[in-house]
Amino acid sequence: MKTKDLMxxxxxxxxxxxxxxxxxxxxxxxxxxxxEESQQDWAFVGGxxxxxxxxxxxxxxxxxxxxxxxMFKQAGAQLNVKTIYTGTPEYxxxxxxxxxxxxxxKKPAGIALCPMNGDAFVEPIQRAIDMGVSxxxxxxxxxxxxxxxxxxxxxxxxxxMAADAIAxxxxxxxxxxxxxxxxxxxxDLRIKSFIERIETKWPDVKVVARAASNQDPNKAxxxxxxxxxxxxxxxxxxxxxxxxxxxxxxxxxxxxxGIRILCCDVNDSILDMIKEGKIFGAINPNQGIQGYYSMxxxxxxxxKLIDPMNDYxxxxxxxxxxxxxxxxxxxxxxxxxxxxxxxxYLERRNSGGIEETSVEYAEKNNLPFIK
Length: 371
Description:
The protein is α/β, with parallel strands linked by helices. The protein has helices at about 5-15, 25-30, 35-40, 65-80, 95-105, 120-130, 155-170, 185-200, 215-230, 245-255, 270-275, 285-300, 310-315, 340-350, 360-365; strands at about 50-60, 80-90, 110-115, 135-140, 150, 175-180, 205-210, 235-240, 260-265, 280-285, 320-325, 330. It has a six-stranded parallel sheet, sandwiched between helices. The chain has a six-stranded mixed sheet with strand order 7-6-8-9-10-12, sandwiched between helices.
């Protein structure tokens, strides 16, 4: 991407989030009114070889993160900076906090963080900001922190879409259930919104059972068997992630009463089951946009490329924030499922995906790596 094109893209990113830039001149025309020194400061010249940005997730080996990091990495390459993906393979808040501290100790230029629990990261995020490290969150939020940006799909809308899809297919009446992952903010919001939508829009549909599966297919399998034993007329089950979807679908196949399984997110197994008619469908965020916007906003923050007409130079605090950026979503059915497989996606891009930030890759390219 050319420097001029990238400048328009970044400025467009500012505009679509509701911020106004002073004046109507084109970006290059506005720059010509500055001194030579300020022209250099404002130029989109890329960060250089030593500027490193990290992406930190939890359950780091799941397929969901592959296209997120893929586009994070692409934006980094276009900006001439280094990017590294890391996290913890376990669903463990304390371990994710430890990884965050390890990355922060390396004083990176910025961190794109998907926090397992937003409240637990308020103090670490503030400490990072105080150190001069730019922080944005994606997919999940730390709403009480001073993160620069939050990039996500609309979790409320996801819950509503799921409720409408199941209820409509059931003819607007019957019984439904949910599997939950309590404590993960975005998942909690999806379930809350699903139940709210059923209660307010579908009076003849009742939520008759809830169970915590905690992203565990085995727990989901057992929970579905138990719920249907108590409520044999359950016609649909919604869960806020993909792992539980696999176990729930297997249980539904064995029960064989036509239960509609609808999950969020996709992986190869989920896609196969959708195409085979074993899973009703999946609501999937546009992951690549999450990653691309994450890198762009980190770069904007780190290079202080937004200069609003306010008191930030006097006060020392720039109030410019991106409180929420919607990356959009897709409802994946058997008709479009082929477009969401990871391997063909990486092959067409000639990419090694997340594996390109393996220990060997990091050592070969003289990059730090968090094990």
